[in-house]
Amino acid sequence: MTTIALIVAAGKGERAGGGVPKQYRPLGGLPVLRRAVLAFSRHPRIDAVRVMIAEEHRALYDAAVAGLDLGAPVIGGAERQASVLNGLESLADAAPEIVLIHDAARPLVPAGVIDRVLDALDAAPAALPVLAVADTLKRGEGGLAAGTVSRDGLWRAQTPQGMRFDAVLDAHRRAAAEGVTMTDDAALMEWAGHAVALVAGSEDAMKITTAQDFALADRLLAGALETRV
Ligand code: CTP
Ligand code: MG
């Protein structure tokens, strides 16, 4: 069985600000993207890693992954969904059984999360790591509380999201043809009628979104909360 990790790194990192896009900035001495790649390339159950990048970041990419055994990057699209589709299309001939689609902006994903997603794919066509919602959820209108939303059955979705390749390529192609957009790949799989299994995520798999998230990621790295490959 062939399992490929697709790492989407073609974003501009606008919310993180700060000149160099977040995926190319250092975290604990290594570029964020390099950490994300290593999480998969060092994992014994991953056969290959493919990265989607923005054309204008080629030099940053080459520097970030120097010395790693990676094939050529795939150029992404204007939205994350388009970047994923480009990555999937680039694998159409190779046709792996499984793809794990991962945000470059989640550099500290533990090996255990990858294992849990892969294990779930034995029984389901798709799987994603999730965390419980701890805070009380409020609806707000015009600066005033306008109701409390039950947390029952609500989860925070992370990556890597694992899918059977044929099913996710078909879902993405259909969505593109119909102009359907969703915020993650698991949502597209649900839209296409596939069961998506939930497995335990990890706070270490946090997404770096804002400049402050770099400080949080540094603390997680120092604490090494879960063992990484
Ligand atoms: N991504 C991508 N192609 C895009 C947009 C996003 O490959 N057109 C990737 C990002 O590089 C990131 C992941 O999808 O690894 C999650 O997206 P996000 O955290 O939103 O990153 P950015 O889009 O880069 O950040 P921002 O939205 O703040 O500009
Ligand atoms: Mg974005």
From TrEMBL:
Q: Which cofactor does it need?
A: a divalent metal cation
Q: Answer yes or no on keyword Transferase.
A: yes
Please name the GO terms that the record assigns under molecular function: 2-C-methyl-D-erythritol 2,4-cyclodiphosphate synthase activity; 2-C-methyl-D-erythritol 4-phosphate cytidylyltransferase activity; metal ion binding
Which pathway does it serve? Isoprenoid biosynthesis; isopentenyl diphosphate biosynthesis via DXP pathway; isopentenyl diphosphate from 1-deoxy-D-xylulose 5-phosphate: step 4/6; Isoprenoid biosynthesis; isopentenyl diphosphate biosynthesis via DXP pathway; isopentenyl diphosphate from 1-deoxy-D-xylulose 5-phosphate: step 2/6
Signal peptide limits: none
Segments of this protein annotated with the region 2-C-methyl-D-erythritol 4-phosphate cytidylyltransferase? 1-227
Q: Name one GO biological process term.
A: terpenoid biosynthetic process
UniProt keywords, alphabetically: Isoprene biosynthesis, Lyase, Metal-binding, Multifunctional enzyme, Nucleotidyltransferase, Transferase
Q: Where is this site: Transition state stabilizer?
A: 15, 22
Task: Write out the catalysed reaction.
Answer: 4-CDP-2-C-methyl-D-erythritol 2-phosphate = 2-C-methyl-D-erythritol 2,4-cyclic diphosphate + CMP; 2-C-methyl-D-erythritol 4-phosphate + CTP + H(+) = 4-CDP-2-C-methyl-D-erythritol + diphosphate
Q: Which domain of life is it from?
A: Bacteria
| Transmembrane segments annotated in the record for this chain | none
Annotated site, Positions MEP for the nucleophilic attack, chain positions:
151, 207
Entry EC number(s): 2.7.7.60, 4.6.1.12
Similarity comment: family membership = Belongs to the IspF family. In the N-terminal section; belongs to the IspD/TarI cytidylyltransferase family. IspD subfamily.
Q: What does this protein do?
A: Bifunctional enzyme that catalyzes the formation of 4-diphosphocytidyl-2-C-methyl-D-erythritol from CTP and 2-C-methyl-D-erythritol 4-phosphate (MEP) (IspD), and catalyzes the conversion of 4-diphosphocytidyl-2-C-methyl-D-erythritol 2-phosphate (CDP-ME2P) to 2-C-methyl-D-erythritol 2,4-cyclodiphosphate (ME-CPP) with a corresponding release of cytidine 5-monophosphate (CMP) (IspF).
Q: What is this protein called?
A: Bifunctional enzyme IspD/IspF
**Originating organism:** Thalassobaculum litoreum DSM 18839
Higher taxonomy: Bacteria, Pseudomonadati, Pseudomonadota, Alphaproteobacteria, Rhodospirillales
